[in-house]
Queue: 2 jobs
Job 1
Amino acid sequence: MFLSVIIPVYNSEKYLSFCIESILNQTFTDFEVILVNDGSSDNSEAICRDYSLKYSHVETYTIANSGSAYARNFGLEKSKGEYISFIDSDDWINPHMFKKLTSLLNEKYIDIVSCDLLNVKVDGKEKPEYSDCSDGYYSRERIVNEIFPFLINSKDLTQHKWPMRMVTKIYNKKFLTKNDIKFANDLKAAQDFVFSVTAMYHASSFYYLKNEFLYYYRENFESRTHKHLHKAWENYLSMNNYLEELLNDSDEFNFTNQLELSKLHGVLSSISYVYRDGNKNRFIKKYRYTKEFSSYYDLTKAVSLIDWEKTSLKKKIFSFLLKARMYLIVSLLANSYYLLIEQTYKKIIKGRIES
């Protein structure tokens, strides 16, 4: 078996068949599909079982709800392939994705290969996700020189300067096993980011198929990624602990400034999770929580490292307010901003239903 495709499934009945069909319709055929039903309460398990009955290379496993990290690790343990791909159950892939990526693996030993990704918005518009990296083969030296400078963060507070998306990649399973690279089960968000960073940190070789947008990422406001995250800040602190433990002792690159910027990025991310759809707490409770974690670090140094010309207006405003410790204004703006997003999303969905 050349490739194992691992898909964690949680309440994905709306898009699951479309996802699986896009994999079964690949022009590359030497693969297995591992569906890990993570305690879904909808019809997802039945859909998975139907595909397993129809196709001998599709396996379905059902586990108690444990989160996508545990589900992916479970799938990894069950995998038989030499290489590993992770696909999200509400997304889909181009028919030639596996053929194009695996053809690179036949040429030489490579730890990780990657294509690019299209963000498919709620209104159906497709937005390419570009990176600053150039196309082609990366040796260890090139990884350190060209990817490490923004491995976890850049001065404009973005994390897409390199093709960091886990789902656009195929990983050599021996490489993952040798370096004990797994998903952090205790993280409720950003597990894929930590996995991607850890894998690239250890990689000796990488091939980037730039501007080949073969993965379609669906903007789904009903998914776990886009909902309110309980204890968002505690999740960030756990994530930051993983990153610090991984990067602090590096003798190839100094990650000090990136880890400092990561503190600010963590506060901004936590704010977004607190005020997203699904948080039924009153504003005063949201504000108190926001004030508590926003004052956890002294963000003066992190804010001083920002490239103000390249950073988005939203992030510049929030960064300035956080540095000035104007937490009430931060909370009011965040509350209004994410309420507007929720209302806009509902209008788009309503318009689709009516049309």
Job 2
Amino acid sequence: MLTRSARCSPDQFAICTILVHTFLCRAPIVLHEIRTADKGPYFLPPGRAVSSINWFIYCIPTSETCRRRAPDTHGIYCELGVTLDNVHKRLLDTLKTGVVLLDENLCLRSMNIAAEALLDISERKAQGLFIGDLLLNGKKDIREMRNAVANNSSYTMRRAELDLVHGKTLSVDYTLNTFEENGKTQAILEISSLEHAARINREENLQQARETTRELVRGLAHEIKNPLGGIRGAAQLLSREINDDELNDYTNVIIEEADRLHNLVDRMLGSRKPLEVAATNIHEVLERVRNLVETDGLGDDIKIETDYDPSIPTIEGDREQLIQATLNLLRNAVQSIDDSELENSQGHILLRTRILRNVTIGPDFRRLAVSVEIIDNGPGIPPGLMDTMFYPMISGRPDGSGLGLPITHSIISQHKGLIECESKPGETKFTVILPIDFESGTD
């Protein structure tokens, strides 16, 4: 157990707790908050992660001997099996914050894995590049960074929009801290993605709304099903006593509508059947779904193309449930194109898979995950539906039930994955991210 002393700041104690867990348990964790016996919770503010790591390195013995006891410099003892040859790189790679090391000319010297993912470039390719070569339309940001390096000071920018050379736009908070090495000024650039935080908040809000709706429907289901059962039973008894075929047609309507309402309530509640988890080939799932949609009568004006990543291994999941989830998404794409009546243009749907590395799904950090994208060139989703389309009974079509997307979201959530949507006129993309290992929180 680690105990914080008066000489150890809350930030230092928080990062130390993470690092001890990482090295001793050989497993990464995602920090939401750190609680201690004296105060808490503690959060790491922007610009403090790297300084706390440097403090932690100061506590590590300079000896090359492994499993050596660190001195009680700040009231914290820890047993670590590390050497100084790779400790900085290993510690930085455990962070979800992008960290970039720059020289006095703002040329890249090194970056961690999170920075590679944010800037969409590998450390090897970025080595020696001027930071301005990666950030387009960033003259003001570069000027402020130069001033910070020249004055040996720090600079923080909130909600910055960074345009990358690959066409990607980042919404981030970043902090530039300077230090001296061998008489030369160096800089550490910390980049925190606002999109990542917004995605987590959006997913949590959606999950809470779904649970609230589910409880509401569960409470109403009992009150609805009981009278439906009585109505259906009475209609059956009445049909046995009536010999007139025309009157029997009316009783059949009553029975059929009672069954329809009963099934509607069951669909709103979702499946109560537990997942039958087994090794599943995601490409077999997608091909099954594609064949089903094409068999239903896909017109010649809509073309479905595939772009699969053959390196994706089998995942753990319920094959039938995953077929149902992706079938709902693909059918929505087809219906969107059919409703749009594209003029002088063919409807196009793309099924694309990719392997993702070092992603966070909810509270879990995953070394490997699978991304499934369903992209169509329909008219797009109305902006007013973007925040509510996963709620039950919400549909953008007059004849829609509003249950397809909620069912899909429920299935993906049961698989500990997430679903996202980006839409604009002419392109709508649904992205499903699934962990490779269903059971483990850290792959």
